[in-house]
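Quick illustration, no need to memorize.
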Amino acid sequence: MKTCCDSRSPAWRRRAGGLLSWLAPTAVLALMPKCPACLAGYIALATGIGLSLPTAEFLRAAAVALSGMLLGILVVRWGLNRRGVARRD
């Protein structure tokens, strides 16, 4: 019986959230251009905002680092869940 205070979300929402948490950083890493000039061009085409090459290099490095860290956190969480270590929320 569900109540108004039931904080548990349906299983499909939890699965979709879990899939999205893996998919977003993976997609960023897979779709990130290797050339900072290409990144500046893509941003200019999508938004109309021009970026300098040093700014594009910084944004690319920051996006790659952030995506890598997020994937690392997800791998650690996955490993702890596989081992049965309880998570504190």
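The chain is about 70% helix and 0% strand.
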